[in-house]
Task: structure prediction
Amino acid sequence: MNNSNPFLLTDDQIASFIIDGYIIVEPELPDGYNQEIIDKLRAMPENPGEHIVESLPALNDLLSNPTIVGTLTSLLGHNYKRDQGGHIHMNPPGTRGQPWHQDERFGRGHQDRDVDDIRQLMFMYYPQDVEPDMGPTVLLPGSHRRTASPESMVTLVNLRGQKFSIVKAGSVLLTHFDIWHAATGNKSDRVRYMIKFPFSRTGENAEPSWDHRSSNIASVRQRLDGEHPSLLSRNEYETDHTLRVRTWNNIAGSAVMQLKSGEHLGGPWPESGGATTASRRRRDMPQLG
Ligand SMILES: O=C(O)CCC(=O)C(=O)O
Result:
């Protein structure tokens, strides 16, 4: 692998993606590029459905941008591909927010998710600055390891730890396909556009496809083990941690890590008034800032 490509992600960025399920990149684009895309979007008589690139060939410049190629290669391997599908999400003033959801993969159903792997991503490009009142996308970090029925998600509103994609024009939000997300209501007087494409892995990595250094394994492991579990459910620490390490192992080829054995759960019986193993561990974990 060519580790000298400056556009590949680092081990630390891969660890963050495994933990949180998203990354925001700001590719360097020619002056006027984002405005050109907006002008063309405004001039479109109707939504072209999934024929986005045919209708807007200038998007090829974004898709071949070295930052985008480096990020997709890092997360999906050298032979990643853009899948059929995609959508131009236009969020005009006065639009109400969507319910939380995980996108559906054609033919796989809502319960079949990649909880311990990175096989498909969503690519979301924002051609204009997105201010808080313009209906940014909201997502829940870590939720890509949780499968939920669409019926149960429609009742959810604000979730602890949710993050809004309040971004500069030209930013691309790349998420694990299964992340919980939604468009929020646009309370401004400006249209918010977002162009979304799915991308997939086509083969298994023999070695990491990002800028990996074996000397970083210990610090990556510390982050996968120690960072706060998904905010959705604090009592699933063991599951969450195992799925993170399995995700690393599924994408890292030969650079595998050992899964923890069950032995760390042994030791002295709890004292009266003391804490259970799980709550002791939580106390030891860094607090959210
Ligand atoms: O428009 C947005 O911000 C997100 C919409 C979206 O991703 C969806 O409908 O699946």
